[in-house]
Every structure is written in C-alpha cells, then in structure tokens.
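Batch 3, record 17
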Amino acid sequence: GAGVSQSPSNKVTEKGKDVELRCDPISGHTALYWYRQRLGQGLEFLIYFQGNSAPDKSGLPSDRFSAERTGESVSTLTIQRTQQEDSAVYLCASRQTGANQPQHFGDGTRLSIL
Amino acid sequence: AQSVTQPDIHITVSEGASLELRCNYSYGATPYLFWYVQSPGQGLQLLLKYFSGDTLVQGIKGFEAEFKRSQSSFNLRKPSVHWSDAAEYFCASSSGNTPLVFGKGTRLSVIA
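Prediction for the assembled complex:
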C-alpha cells in the first residue's frame, strides 16, 4: 500500500516568503506528526494531530509556524515570513490508533531559504 | 522529560564485521523504544520496536536490539555488516501516543 507522501520534495525560496508543505498520511492512520531535521541534527517535534482532538502545538518554534489537518486526511504545515534558520528537512509521520503502533515517515521536504 | 542519547556520532566498520550502536534513554517508566534508519535524501525507515515482553527484539535487515532496564539502554546490533547498511541510525522513545523523542543519530560508514 501507499506510504506517507510529502510534497514538494524540495523547495527553495527567498527569505521573507511564505511556504506551505503538504503531507498525505497513510489511509486510516488517525495520528499525524510533523518533525524538523536540521543539518547534522536529530529530529525535533513540531506538532501532533490525533483524530478530532485539539492538536499538540508545543513543539512549534515560533508563531510563524502553523499547521492544519482536516479530519484524518491531508495536513499542511505553513511557515510565514521564512528565515534562513528555517532551512531544514521537514518530515511527516502517521500512525494507526493504538499506543503500540509505530510511526511511519514520509521522505520529507527539503526547504532551503536563500 | 524523556531524553535519548546516542553517544557515538560516527562509527566506521569493515564489511562483514559485527556492529553495535549504543542508545541510552531517560524516562521514569518503561518507554516504547525504536530504531530507525535514514539513507541520504530519504525518510526514516523503522528497523525494530520494543514495547514490552521479550527484551531481545528482532527487526528487519538482520538487525536486533536488546532492552536492558538496569542500564537504561537499547543497543542495536548486527552480526555481519553489509555495505548497504551505511546510513544514519536514530534511536527514539515515546510513551505511547506522544511524539517521538530522538537521539541525535549515529552515522555508520562501511569500508571494504
């Protein structure tokens, strides 16, 4: 079956522009997570959606970052007024209901801010 | 708060040699533990996971890991490394539905 799909795979933009990143989770997966991976670093949690519950936004680094998810489908991560430090790979993961279910990751969007 | 430590930033092994990648976690209860592998330009692929039960866990690609509560460790092992195993390896923990907490990763190089 299809895995987690992210688009675009690469995005280059100028500082100050807004960007929107898309994640299509695996069908039937109720939980969806966004992570950021800076060069040479581990993954930092950004935001977590679980079904229709209010999202856990505790990892968002600033109010320039926001994310939406409609039901149990597509999610978009938006970064407004991009800064050079936003350059990173943004990874999305989804997971089935159940505490012992692992997260499955997409290939990520590589964002470069000029 | 949970934390995961991978002490080795970079490891080089010869093809055919054995491998052990270290991972230590910090968490009050027994966490859920995972090892993921990331090839260049790719996302993360799950190698194996531990939730409870048998402390020796078998994964894909010939990998295994052993949960040792007394040492707060979850080290990844492979008896014979192949050149295709060269990649970045991440250890991670969670407490069920919570987001994963990742170590900073260990880069594995394989030489002939």
